[in-house]
Every structure is written in C-alpha cells, then in structure tokens.
Amino acid sequence: MLDYTEFYNSALDHIDLMQDYYNWQSTHNNKQFAYCQYPFILSIVAKRVILTKDSEQQMILRARRSLAAKVARHQAPQIDIFFLNIRVRRSHLISDSLNEIATKQKDLKKKLKVSFISEPGLDMGGLTKEWFLLLIRQIFHPDYGMFVYHPRSNCYWFSVAQIENLQEYNLIGVLMGLAVYNSIILDLHFPTICYKKLLSPPIVPINVSSVGIIRRPTIEDLAQIMPDISKSLTELLIYEGNVEDDLCQTFQVSFEEFGRVETFPLKESGESIAVTNENREEYVQLYLDWVLNKAIFEQYRAFYLGFHSVCASNALLLLRPEEVETLVCGSPTINITELKKITSYEGFKPNDPIIKDFWKILDSLSTELKKKFLLFTTGSNRIPVGGMEEMTFKITKMINKRENLPEAHTCFNQLVLPEYETTDELKQKLIISISNAEGFGLE
Question: Is 273 helix (H, G, I), strand (E, B) or coil?
Fold first, then answer.
C-alpha cells in the first residue's frame, strides 16, 4: 500500500494557497475549482501555510475587535490588547496557567506572549517555548497521574481514573491548539489515534455530547497504544478451540493504572456473560470501544474542546490525523549536515578551526545530546514541518570571555560561542551548557 505522502504534489506549494483556500470555502456559491477539494494532493508544507495564514487572519481580526472596543469606550489602547499575555510563577506553573487561560478565553486567538513573574525577560519567542516545555513536562509526570506511559509503544494515553481533572485535560488541549496556532513544536508522545479522535469531527458541532469518538475502532488503533493487548485480541478472534471452555473469559475488562487493578463490565451484567466462539467479535468490539472511547470519554472531550477553542478552522478539514501530529510535534530527525547548511556566522568564518571542531563535536554527540543542543539553541528539540530549511541558525562569537560557557538566544535560534583554545575545552563546555538548558533572562 502506498504511503499517503506519495500523493503529495509539491508543485502546489508555490501556488496562491490562500486564494485557493478561499475559493474552496466559497465553492457552494460560485462553483470555482480549488485544489483544496482534493486535500490528499496538498503537501503538509502547503497545509501548514494555509493553517498558519488562517491563524494569522484570525489573530488580526481578534486584535482589531479589541482595538475597536477600546476606542468605542474612549479608552487609550495599550499594546497588550493585541496579545494573549500569560503571566505565571514557576513555583505554581500549572495552577497559574489554568487561571490565566480560564480568565482570558476571549484572547486565545491573539498572538501568545509569556512572562515568568519576578524574572527579567522579554518574550521574543524563547519564554513561550520554555513555558510550553515546562508545563508539558509537569503535566505528563507520572506523579501527576493524568496520563499513563506505555513503554512497549513509547507513548502516553489518557488515565481512566482521572475523571476529576477535566480542567487540566482541557489545558493540554488548549496548549496543543496554542502550539499549532503560534507555530510552536511540542515534544508530545501521543499515538496517532489521539489525533484521529481530535478530528472526530474536525469542526466542533453544536451538540458536543459525542465529540472525540471513533466509530468502530480497530485492533490496529489499539496496537498503537497497547500492542500486547491487541495481539491477544487478534489471537482470540482466530482461536480454533472452544473459547468459552478454554479461555474462561467474561464480558469484562481489567485495567491496571499506577499499581491499582480495576475491573469494568463491557455490557450490562457482563461479569456473568461468557465469551464464546459465537460472541467473541462482539466482545472484541466492545473492548476496543471501552478502551479507546468510553473509559476516557470525559477526559478526551475536555481535551478536544480545549484544542478546538483555539484551533477552530475549516483548514482542519484538509488534514489527516498523521498530519496534525506532524504539525504539533514536528520531526524528531536531526540532520547536522542540513543544520550546517543553513547556519550563518557573526565574528566567525565557516573555515575557522573552532567552527570546524564545533561541527565535528556536534556530529559525534549522541542523539539525546543532539536533541538537547537543539533545545538549548532553539527552545525545541524537534524540527519544524518542512525540515531544517524552514529554520534559521546563527553562531556568534563571544568577545573577550573565553572562560565562559556557550550561551544561546532561543528567540533568534542563536548560539553565542567563546573562542576556546582547545577542542577538549570546547566539547566539555558545550556539553555542560546543553545539559543544563533551562531558564531565560536578560543579561
């Protein structure tokens, strides 16, 4: 089977995509042709352009409305009215973020700016990236209990038990929406079915009682999260013996989270209904529906509504689940050769010995350290849609401070490098810097 990316026509990346998008949205009136009618041929780069431009238009519209409201009240407008200003304390990151988002719902479609209370820092992009990074790190920590990590699939799934944390699930959805809306890459480990549910449906209906539900989920969907269980269900369906006598199963599901095992019926009186050769397909379908829909319905609905409160756009109709995942998470592949090609220099030349040593050192680092380097210098450890060529990167010489550690300005994807005398010193201090990259301030 061909991969969906094989149908991309990259030549369409260079047409007037927004005009095509507007034509598509108005086809019910004038029947104009639009490539958006056939989204499978539009590349992820083209769709990213459409979504970004559409987001920018919504930002401008919301800012204009705020300005008009100020003028109508004969109030002097302040620059802050054009932004979603998030002010948080590091020590109360989640509670402050929840409060800020709850009280600024009408501003979610404005350009995001973040500040950490009692810290000197102007957000040129770096503070925003750090806010996302720290907030996601805390929310996904096992002690917080909102998401369960599945090591076999290396992904997180929604906790069945955390039915009371709906505000926090909504916050994660808002964060994902803000990230897409503001072109920020997040290091999230959700399975593709999470994004499939996010597009179910892609436009929020008036009645939200059934949003985020996958109709007839498959064993392949479950395999993205729990490959062992999906394998067991597959074996159950093809078992040639007597299912009832040999396997002794009933219409129940037992689930373990954080050391606790709980059992739930899959249908009324399920604990008394044996799984047989005749009803095993029903059992499997109910099992899939319970794990992927019913058990996490309230949690996922809060998450879904949070995302769409920011990212509501007809452009979502163009996207596949895998493409939403790429927009949110970017690419994990770090190509040092490609990074070198896009790098500019200030105070150094590409052929300077220290620069040659720098690239050799960087290329020799482990994948984990390369990701930390990218995080240190850009505020994200992943590559945006479109690859390295979509980025800018600059290496600047630090003057008269040879004993200092390398510094970075994530707002500008800039590394500030002292001119060290030896390769060993360069490697040692570079690793120290990239291994301790947290916190932004003004010098």
Answer: coil
440 pLDDT higher than 60:
no
Average pLDDT, the chain: 90
- How far is Cα 278 from Cα 281, in angstroms, rounded to an integer? 8
Contact between 383 and 330 under an 8 Å Cβ cutoff? The reply is yes
Predicted TM-score (pTM) of this structure: 0.84
Higher pLDDT, residue 65 or 202 = 202
- Which of 58, 316, 329 lies closest to 201, judged by CA? 316
Distances (CA, A) of 186 to 177, 326, 380: 11, 10, 7
Whole-angstrom Cα distance, residue 351 to residue 2?
Answer: 44
Structure tokens given for 13 = 């990346």
- 261-279 per-position pLDDT tens digit: 889 999 999 999 999 999 9
Mean pLDDT of 304-325: 93
How open is the CA angle 78-83-89, to the nearest 5 degrees? 105
The rounded Cα 273 to chain-centroid distance in angstroms is 41
Q: Is 247 exposed, middle or buried (CB count within 10 Å of its CB: 0-12, 13-18, 19+)?
A: middle
Catalytic residue numbers, as ranges:
411
Torsion angle of C-alpha atoms 239, 241, 242, 247, degrees rounded to 10 = -60
Q: For residue 442, what pLDDT is reported?
A: 29
Cα angle 339, 114, 302; round to 5: 95
Rounded distance, CA 443 to CA 129, Å? Answer: 19
Edge-first strand order for the sheet with 343-346 is 343-346, 393-398, 414-418, 407-409
Q: Cα torsion for 356, 358, 359, 360, to the nearest 10°?
A: 80
Q: For residue 180, count CB atoms less than 10 angstroms from its CB and return exposed for 0-12, middle for 13-18, buried for 19 or more.
A: buried
